[in-house]
Amino acid sequence: MSLNYLEFDYSEDTQGIGTFDAMASIAPSQVPAVHAEMAMVLAWALKAFPGGRGPVGDGFDWDYDLQGQREFTASDTLVFDEYTVQLRVTPHPPGTPRHTLTLSVSGGDAFCAAFRARFELG
Q1: Given CA atoms 76, 81, 85, 88 in this order, what sign does their dihedral have?
Q2: What is the pLDDT confidence band of residue 1, given thresholds at 50, 70 and 90?
Q3: How many angstroms separate the CA atoms of 15 and 55, rounded?
Q4: Which of 20, 60, 80, 110 could form a disulfide with 8 if both were Cys (CB 3.0 to 4.6 A apart)?
Q5: Kind and range of the H or E element at 34?
Q6: Measured torsion, CA atoms of residues 108, 109, 111, 116, in degrees rounded to the nearest 10
Q7: Three-class SS of residue 38?
Q8: Residue 77 region, left (φ>0) first, then alpha (ψ -120 to 50), else beta?
Q9: What are phi and psi of 97, to 5 degrees?
Q10: What is the pTM of this model?
Q11: CB 57 within 8 A of CB 17
Q12: Are 107 and 56 spatial neighbours (Cβ–Cβ below 8 Å)?
């Protein structure tokens, strides 16, 4: 099954623990769809490796980390005043928030192989 929003990058540490990282920086209207994809990924892992969630370095099959952040930006209008030879700044109110969501999923060899197969990762 392919994902529409989450695109995972893979890395591996010196102990052979693999980590799939995905980040989405999205508008508020896309948040429910990204949340649904994250929940689908975690539900699959929970079902495919029941009872195996916990610190992978301690012998568990898989683990995850979720993060979310909302950022509000506000534009400034800058005008150069040729008479005073200075900039005039007019601040504007914050705009629509941008949501940045991250999901990291880690596991051993069997988990990583199953994850790649399930989510059609190369």
Answers
A1: negative
A2: low
A3: 13
A4: 20
A5: helix 31-48
A6: 130
A7: helix
A8: beta
A9: -70, 150
A10: 0.82
A11: yes
A12: yes
What average pLDDT is seen over the chain? 94
Contact 58, 69 (CB under 8 A): no
Q: Which residue has the tokens 């990583």?
A: 112
Nearest Cα neighbor of 104 from 9, 3, 31 is 9
CB 101 within 8 A of CB 22: no
Torsional class of 59: left (φ above 0), alpha (ψ -120 to 50), beta (otherwise): left
Per-residue model confidence as pLDDT tens digits over 3-41: 899 999 999 999 989 999 999 999 999 999 999 999 999
Residue with tokens 């909302």: 70
Cα separation, 79 vs 6, in Å, equals 41
